[in-house]
Structure formats: structure tokens, C-alpha cells
Design brief:
By secondary structure, the protein is of the alpha/beta class. The protein contains five helices and 18 strands.
Length: about 200
């Protein structure tokens, strides 16, 4: 098992070797090109992201600047959006579902290090991160290695997510905790506001 295979498997590994260096160089080149684009170059931005990531939907939008370790370990679903200053450290797989929204400065970390200083000086490790469909992650949130976030979740801004979050909840804090479930009353409230919006804009 080479170092890249060990890294992706969540085993201890050395962040060196020709394959990892080539993957890192590729990521730096593509993110540099992406971050240098202008607002008139939307097609170029999309093409660069599709080349960078392992898989994407047809629609995705990331506000530059964006940073990642490798890019090729990131999978995003249809309609993914990330605001400014997103960082994804993808030494392990990062799977993001459909219609996921990231506020500014959201960071997703799969990279980790051994607690023992002697081992940490020699080796690194990581754990994958998974985010479900229809998730909204507030700005300045950090999602730590090994976390799984369910579907239809709202993560409050400034959160540090250290443990799994189930479906259909609002969660926030440091460490991030479940605040309350998302209810039928929530759905009805927001759908009523949407109906009012439609009526008001149709009249205008």
C-alpha cells in the first residue's frame, strides 16, 4: 500500500512521494487559476472546478478565493454553493450532497495528526467527512475530521463540528450541539412567507 492509498484509507502516512506531490501540484495550479478569474469568466471557473474535483453536479458555484489540499478527493452534488474563503483539506474523501450552501469562511478538515508528539513528527493521518443533502452551514464554521452531517441540517455560524449531526436539526456552538429539531411548523412558516413573496412580486 503506497502513501496515497494509506492516506485515503485513514491510516498513518507520510505526506511525500511522487504521486502525492503531483496531486498537490495539480491542486495548487488549478486553484491558482480559479482564484485569478474574474466575474466575467463564469464558464472558465466552472470548467476549472469540474477538473479539480472528483465529481460534481452540473450546477455549482464557489466564490473565490478557494483552497484545498488535493481536490481530487472532493465530491459535490448538484447546486453546491460556497461563499468566500472556503477551505477544504481533503486528505481523505469529502462527500457533499445536493443543494448544500456554505457561508463565508467555512472550513472542512479531514486532515489530522497523532496526539503523541513523537509520532506526530513523522506521520500524519485523516478521516473522511460526509455532508448530506439540503444542508446550510453558517459562516466561520469548522467541520472536523470524521464528521457526518445528515440531511436538511442547519449549522449555526461560528460552530465547531466535532461529532456527527443527525437529519433535520438546527445545531450550533463550540462544540456544535443540537439546538432543536426542524419541525412541520418551520416548513409551514417559511412556505407561507414564500407564498407572500410570490404574491407581492407578481403584483409588482
Amino acid at each position: 500500500m503506497n502513501q496515497k492509498a494509506r492516506m485515503l484509507a485513514g491510516k498513518l502516512y507520510v505526506a511525500q512521494g511522487p504521486e502525492l506531490k503531483a496531486d498537490c501540484h495539480r491542486s495548487r495550479r488549478l486553484t491558482r487559476l480559479f482564484n485569478a478569474t474574474t466575474e466575467e469568466q463564469q464558464e472558465e471557473r466552472l470548467a476549472l472546478l469540474k477538473e479539480l474535483f472528483a465529481a460534481t453536479g452540473e450546477r455549482l458555484y464557489i466564490e473565490p478565493p478557494f483552497r484545498c489540499d488535493y481536490g481530487g478527493n472532493i465530491q459535490v452534488g448538484e447546486g453546491f454553493y460556497a461563499n468566500f474563503d472556503c477551505i477544504i483539506l481533503d486528505v481523505c474523501r469529502v462527500r457533499i450532497g445536493e443543494r448544500v450552501l456554505f457561508g463565508p469562511r467555512v472550513c472542512v478538515y479531514t486532515a489530522s495528526h497523532p496526539i503523541d508528539a513523537g509520532v506526530r513528527a513523522e506521520l500524519e493521518c485523516g478521516r473522511p467527512v460526509s455532508i448530506g443533502d439540503d444542508v446550510w452551514v453558517g459562516g466561520n464554521t469548522v467541520i472536523n475530521p470524521g464528521v457526518r452531517i445528515g440531511n436538511r441540517v442547519v449549522i449555526g455560524s461560528g460552530s465547531v463540528v466535532t461529532k456527527d449531526i443527525p437529519d433535520d436539526v438546527v445545531a450550533a456552538g463550540n462544540p456544535c450541539r443540537i439546538i432543536r429539531p426542524i419541525t412541520e411548523e418551520d416548513r409551514q412558516y417559511w412556505q407561507q412567507l414564500r407564498e407572500e413573496y410570490r404574491a407581492e412580486t407578481e403584483e409588482a
